[in-house]
Design goal:
Distance between the termini: 39 Å
Helix content: 25-40%
Bound molecules: fe (ii) ion
Number of strands: 17
Number of helices: 7
CATH class: Alpha Beta
Strand content: 15-25%
CATH architecture: 4-Layer Sandwich
Number of domains: 1
Order of helices and strands: EEEEEEEEHEHHEHEEEEEHHEEH
CATH topology: Metallo-beta-lactamase, Chain A
Radius of gyration: 17 Å
Largest sheet: 7 strands, mixed
Shape: globular
Length: 244
Amino acid sequence: MNGPFEAVKISDKAYWVGAVDWAIRDFHGYSTRRGTTYNAYLVLADRYVLIDTVKAPFKDEMLSRIASVLDPRHISYVISNHSEMDHSGCLTDVIEMLEPEKVFASPMGVKALAGHFAKTRSGEIVPVKDGESLNLGNATLTFTHTPMLHWPDSMFTYLPEDALLFSQDAFGMHLAGGRRFADEIDDEILLDEAARYYANILLPFSPLVLKLIETQYVPDERALTLCRELGKTIAEKLAERCDG
Ligand SMILES: [Fe+2]
């Protein structure tokens, strides 16, 4: 470990490598009184994968966290679950600096990213089908399209070997902090910010959220870890949360 920004191990194969924005108090008109966190993740299987990036000014923080566990240039694949700039703001820089073999997104994500990065030489981004899997050798990543949770391009990435779901904004919240796991945070703060985020961003799409949970993820009998892409990583059984 070499510096102030280090990766946080969250499972056998995954690390959190995002950035904490302590200062932000307004996110597109949404009052972020407790700041926010931009979540990016590394999956270290036979191939190395970066899932999402962070807001552009926080690029060096993310790269420092990645460098605390591996040479960032060894990343083979980058996955963009969501094209909003707090997730993809330094994607172009990552592509140019790290030269990954491939970058994946949903078909709508490919269109959105092309719009954002029309003036760059970011190269082709590969669209993935709903349910498609990416073979990493000793692990797999499976993609689920989740349109309108909360953008048309949104998708989830699932790592079944670790029962880890990278859920981008669908279970997000705005919260800065030094702790990464839900059980390390005061319940009152956690639930307050989760409720505020859901009410502001996802409430109109509640039927889609419930359908997704019922059809896709509750059948997993192991503890399912949700890796939010804003706010905190949360480690709880999703089924228990839904029942509660
Ligand atoms: Fe978003």
